[in-house]
Design goal:
The chain is of the alpha+beta class. It contains seven helices and 23 strands.
Length: 421
Amino acid sequence: MKEILYKCREGLNKVKDWLVLFFKNPKKRNLTLIIGFSLALIFLGGIIYNIVNTSRDSVIKRFENTINSSNPYRVYKYMKVEGSNTELNEENIKPLVDYLKENKSRQDEVISVLRFKDSSKDLLKLKKEKGFMGDRYYIGIEEVNLKIVVNLKNTNILLNDKVIEKTNEDNKVVTINSIIPGTYNIKGIYEGEYGNIEDNETVQLVNKENEKELKLKGVTLTVDSNYKDAKVFINEEDSSRTVEEFKEIGPMPSDGSYKIYLEKEFPWGVVKSEEKVIGDLAKINLQINPLTEDLKKELEKNYKEFYDNFFKALNEGDKEYIKNTTEEIRNRIYKEYYSRGIIIKDSYDFKNLKWQKDAISIKEEKGEFKTYAIAEVSFKKQKNILFLSYESVDVNKEFITELTYIKDSGKWMVTEVKEIN
């Protein structure tokens, strides 16, 4: 207050000297009086306003009131960046204000340091500079620097959603200088062929030198399968690669948001593998079982028709009833199981055909698809003399039967029948 009164007294003395000088001329006395007095009031008012609004206590008080107001970002009016030409505004001061308002005790501590302590080593510093009308106080800020270590090449680095740089190598160190201290969000985005990989972190940059790390979680993936020409699908989209071609592809997101499966086209239709989640494993094995439920039903029907016809041929004594097989197979099995004498003959009553669990399988051999099945055939065998039956016995036999897919006809044919002893 003493300083303010002293400044006011200085100003009044200057006005007094000016008035005495002009009042010596009587002709201009009245006009000069009016003009001079008005100018003196303006000059004096300016001095007082400048002194009051840039005094130490006033700057701190206005800073505190503004930061607690509905628009705290106006505090930039009382602040200045030290050793830089950076012009503060509501946008670039936002990280600092957000940092202070995140924690009320943090805000109170800053105000306390500015008001009562030496703030020369703190985040915000109370500074003064010489002005035309005396000392002018303001709150000074020192800009900070940031280093970000990024593990993946071709990653876009963003600071508060603004792209700063794109990395050109793995484990790249990205340096960002001259940042207003405060709270920021740093983000890394790798835009990959099969999806983006992201990592972000909210950080407080309040030290002169700051260092952070962005570790984007991705995997370089290899796919293996029993069918190398199967197509690879990622999140239900064709990758345009086969299993043979899908080697060390990536990096790809490994956060569980992506899934992978295979598709293979067979003569009887497209078959899909199981679907797996892409995680941290660098290699995924996906097996394809070409035996679909529809195909299994079709094969079971073929097997049953074959054995129905086989026993009919034995009862009727006519091998031509044995269909859907080769001539060699027809002759061999008919000769092996058919028995008829002049008086005594055998007859067969086919009862049931039961498959062993998971006994039907498919293999591809030299470009041909073959299916194998183990079946338990139940039938009643009896001997007959003329029209009389005797020695009836229930028989259970196991047969391994091979069917081969014939491309020309698009059908399955029995190409081998063996009894399992």
